[in-house]
Amino acid sequence: MTPTINVLLLGSGGRESAIAWKLSQSPRMGKFFIAPGNAGTSDFGTNLNIKPTDFDAVYAAVKENDIDLVVAGNEDPLVAGLRESLEAKAAADGRKLLIMGPGAAGAALEGSKDFAKAFMGRHEIPTARYFTVTEANVAEGDAFLESLKAPYVLKADGLAAGKGVLIIDNLDEARRSLREMLAGQFGKASAKVVIEEFLTGIECSVFVVTDGKGGYLVLPPAKDYKRVGEGDTGLNTGGMGSVCPPPFCTDEFMAKVDERIIKPTVEGLIKEGIDYRGFIFLGLISCGGEPYVIEYNVRMGDPETESVMPRIASDLLPVLEAAAAGHLGDATVEADPRTTVAVMAVSGGYPGDYAKGKKITGELRPADSIVFHAGTRTSAEGDIETAGGRVLAAVSYGDSIEDAAAKSYKALADIKFDGMYFRRDIGKDLL
Ligand code: AMP
Ligand code: GLY
């Protein structure tokens, strides 16, 4: 029998709940910790009250619990150098530690849009035309804007909590916004701004596990629903639901993604001397069946992960362990043939201001669905209550999108909290 391994998963959202749910089913799992986790992750492992960006505290937990593998859920610690910090501390202690997540150089694929665009340019990966602007070349930025057709896409170079992308219909307004961004609208993140050509098409998310040595595996593709309102209206959110797989991600489309995007990305990282062991999230747009990269992220997507994890039929833990060890070898990922639909229930007012601490009641362990916690916590009285904008995701399997969505809506009908809201049209555009 292969020995078990002890795992520490960093993060607290619906994504981490879904990863925890999946990994906890592995026969290889030894002791399992989630830091900081939420009220639901404690069903799968032990929550540790640690901030993932507090590397000293993370490493102290690694030592105390004899952790073999750290899995990074979100990007912030990776961009801030989690890998380098943990590797240095482990080396000083003579401890073997595997980390699933790139070092800061690889994390720049998400941490700097300018780096990501230049990387795609160097490796001939299809993406929108762009121009990068700082205070020093605003006039050239204006000229580039004038060369484009509306709408105009302006992106803060750095991390801006998912809010740094503006899509603007009017040229004068785009020029004004460019200046506001450079002047600090998104703090330091927008001291550089990437202007992009607007691409028209349908978006999907493709997730790759890579070992930094050229080995990679592709997870089932998904589509997320970013706008708060039905029919894709209203403000952008972290994500209101997801479908896995979207029917337009055909074998033919995925073969193009592999050939034109995944292979050159994985090989490009190696050519640039970046030992990337982790997830690569390709935010893609299909323009008439041709894939283009909208963005890279260096982690799984949320709420895509909530629909992707249930569709992985094989054991994921050995895959992550092998990728983190730099040798995927003959590891595989088997997909469940069914469709999954995740519907996110959010706090009233989200993505604007919303209240926290609302008691959640009802059936959180329904027979036909999985309810993944996101922004939840356990109150002093032992109740489960809201603790964030995106509160929980109901996920279900079905033979079709309609079938899976109907089950997720049925699950949400049995859950209540004050101000609870969810979109009732997840997956409808794909029917
Ligand atoms: P992001 O916050 O980087 O995920 O971007 C937010 C959203 O802006 C994306 O999901 C797309 O819907 C949209 N977007 C970003 N870049 C482009 C582009 N070049 N063309 C069209 N839409 C875009
Ligand atoms: N669902 C998009 C993201 O995780 O960035």
Indicate the percent of residues in helices: 25-40%
Q: List the uncertain runs.
A: none
Strand content: 25-35%
Strand order in the sheet with the most strands:
3-2-1-4-5
Number of strands: 24
For the terminal residues, how far apart are their CA atoms? 46 Å
In angstroms, what is the radius of gyration?
21 Å
The overall pLDDT average reads 96
What's the short version?
With 431 residues, the protein is an alpha+beta fold. The chain contains 12 helices and 24 strands. The strands form 7 sheets. Strands 3-2-1-4-5 form a 5-stranded parallel sheet, with helices on both faces.
What would you say this structure looks like, in words?
With 431 residues, this protein is α+β, with helices and mostly antiparallel strands. The chain has helices spanning 14-24, 55-64, 75-79, 82-93, 104-111, 113-122, 138-147, 171-185, 251-271, 304-308, 317-324, 401-413, and strands at 5-11, 29-36, 46-47, 69-72, 98-100, 130-133, 152-156, 165-168, 193-196, 202-211, 216-218, 223-224, 227-229, 233-236, 241-244, 277-287, 290-297, 339-346, 361-362, 370-373, 376-378, 384-386, 390-398, 415-416. Helix 2 crosses helix 4 and helix 5 packs across helix 6 (113-122). The model has no long low-confidence stretch (mean pLDDT 96). Bound molecules: adenosine monophosphate and glycine.
